[in-house]
Amino acid sequence: ISNAVALFEERQEVNQEIHAVKELLEEADDDKAMEQECLEEIQRLESNRDELEVKMVDAVLPKDTDDFGSDAVIEVRAGTGGDEASLFALELFEAYERIAKSLGFRTETLSRSESEIGGLKEGSLLVTGGASYPLPPPTDGGGGGGGEGPLLGPFGAFKFESGGHRVQRIPLTDKSRVHTSACSV
């Protein structure tokens, strides 16, 4: 919490500087150069304050320890849309499997129920492996980049994929209209 407090204090100092520069701007009268310099300084300080506020939120939010070492089970189920939804579910399932492998994780199909036309009614994929997916580095304005943050495990890499997934396209089963298909993950 000391980091969050230090960031808060730094933000308070920046707010005081913004107030002082605004007072200076009011006193500038007809000095256009001084006005321009004050406006640029206010803009720089406000940008700095915004970055500090983002860092403060990051500092106080709890970190999920499951992100780094836990395996994941990804379940894909065809929803509304009939045969076309089962084809979409198959594409999603295969995409998650490819993504997991490309991130260096191991995959194992736990269950798979296919539809009559070769789609997927439902399927479960176990994703295992050590932490290998880089968490984005903090936004410190210093350029950072390059995956300098901690490495995420399978759960951390895929936890935000849960929920409804939807696609609108001309179906493979009926080329005469646009169709909406849904799946749950």
Concise summary:
The protein is built from five helices and seven strands; from the N terminus they run H-H-H-E-H-E-E-E-E-H-E-E. The protein is an alpha+beta fold and 185 residues long.
Keywords:
five-stranded antiparallel beta sheet; 22% strand; single chain; alpha+beta; 185 residues; two-stranded antiparallel sheet
Question: Class by helix and strand content?
Answer: alpha+beta
Uncertain runs are 138-148
Instruction: Work out the strand percent.
Output: 15-25%
Using the CA coordinates, give the radius of gyration: 25 Å
Helix content: 40-55%
Secondary structure layout:
Layout: H1 2-27, H2 32-60, H3 66-69, E1 72-78, H4 82-102, E2 106-114, E3 120-128, E4 133-134, E5 151-152, H5 154-158, E6 164-169, E7 179-184
Antiparallel strand pairs: 1-3, 1-7, 2-3, 4-5, 6-7
Helix pairs in contact: 1-2
What does this structure look like?
By secondary structure, the chain is α+β, with helices and mostly antiparallel strands. The chain is 46% helix and 22% strand. A 5-stranded antiparallel sheet has the order 2-3-1-7-6. The chain is elongated, with a radius of gyration of 25 Å. The two termini are 36 Å apart.
